[in-house]
Amino acid sequence: MRPYSPLATLLIAASLREHGHDVAFFDATLSPGVHEFDAMLRKTRPTVVGILEDNFNYLTKMCTVRTREATLSMVAAARAFGCKVAVNGSDSSDHPQLYLDAGAEAVLPGEADVSFLGLAHAWRASVDVDLRDVPGLIIASRDGGVVRTGPARSIGDLNALPLPAWDLVDVDAYRQAWTSAHGRFSWNMISSRGCPFGCNWCAKPIFGRRYSQRSPECVADEMVQLRASVRPDHIWFADDIFGLTARWMTQFASAVAARNVRTPFMIQCRADLLGPEVVAALADAGAEEVWLGVESGSQRIVDAMEKDMRIDDVRRATRALRAHGIRACWFLQLGYPSEAWEDVLQTRDLVREERPDDIGVSVAYPLPGTGFHRMVKAQLGLHRNWQDTDDLAMLFHGTYTTAFYRELRDALHEEARAPVANDDRWNALARDEWRHRSAEPLVAANA
């Protein structure tokens, strides 16, 4: 129960209203099922339905079977009601034909802020508009395939965007969910878009390598408004890379102090960006927890991922964060091609030696459009998506079986939590690891 509002959708809703559109909002986050969406259709009787993923939540980049099935059901329901339907998200961008066949008039790849607003304008003028004249869409072609219209312009000044339409959300429902489970209420914000780095397993399906930031003052001003209207106890900045530079971070800390809106917050960042000045500024601004994309304790595997980071960076950043009273947490990734038992043990040893405050463990997930996906594409069978986000199923022929990777995940979590190392468990895993090797391990290490 860590639900966050669909921030990307709320930003688009705010832009639509700013341009004179009447907007009703269906929030699937806490909804028990698609039947509530059907009820919303009957209540609001919309002309246009946009089904938009929260592109700021990294979990949406990993399409699961449950997400796809729910989306397709909503597309069908809206079309049956006579609505014009557009869909935006990673899976629809990767498989537009699937969503067009289900009844969507258009798929919106990438940022939907501009393209959906343009489509809404076009449909307001005429529901029979020729969509080939609307930029930023994937639509059905006359021969039964798909065709892309011209490119939509990119968002210019992020500071000029309206604040998210928080009033459309049942804030009290989110507050109840959070406080019942965790004793405090967390909310999400965004200070930038994109990531300038090139890890070969990361799709960046929405913003690509482009990186743009709001000004530190603009972000702090939003914190003022958020405190007045939503009143969170904690903030998750959902940026792929928060801050990026020491200059931005020090200005942000100053802006927060000047407005007296220091609020505990959590971010995602890279270890090699967390120099002493940045960590000090994070602490001043209110950072409580920083999640680092560590991935592996093996430099060989990190290099194969083209992450351009050193394991020593992880050690330095973790120690610096802890010295400033900030929780240092790690994302770890098992099963990347060519990972061997020795690499797994190096990951375990890094956890033992640096003692991160928390870890999140996954297995390598081939996202369409990535170099990693191209590397393993020939091995992918019919099962190409997880059922849900904690499935942890191997979708290609890695070194070990899914069952063994789940055991390794549990062992790493125990290692992070326990005050002393559990050598007996790891010795047992070492004795059995050969039994769990995949029948067709992939040896290649680079895309």
Keywords:
alpha/beta, 16 helices, three-stranded parallel sheet, TIM Barrel, 447 residues, six-stranded parallel sheet
Structure explained in plain terms:
It is built from 16 helices and 13 strands. With 447 residues, the protein is α/β, with parallel strands linked by helices. Strand 10, helix 10 and strand 11 form a beta-alpha-beta unit. The strands form 4 sheets. A 6-stranded parallel sheet has the order 6-9-10-11-12-13.
Separate helix tally? 16
Report the uncertain regions: 441-447
Assign the structural class, choosing from mainly alpha, mainly beta, alpha/beta, alpha+beta, or little secondary structure. alpha/beta
Domain tally: 2
Distance from N terminus to C terminus (CA atoms, Å) equals 37 Å
Quantity of strands, as a count: 13
Placed side by side, the strands forming the largest sheet appear as 6-9-10-11-12-13
Give the topology string: H per helix, E per strand: HHEHEHHEHEEHEEEHEHEHEHHEHEHHH
CATH architecture of the largest domain: Alpha-Beta Barrel
Mean pLDDT: 90
CATH topology heading of the largest domain: TIM Barrel
Kindly report the name of the CATH homologous superfamily of the largest domain: Aldolase class I
What kind of sheet is the major sheet?
Answer: 6 strands, parallel
Q: At the first level of CATH, what is the class of the largest domain?
A: Alpha Beta
Please bin the fraction of helical residues: 40-55%
**Silhouette:** globular
Tell me the β content: 5-15%
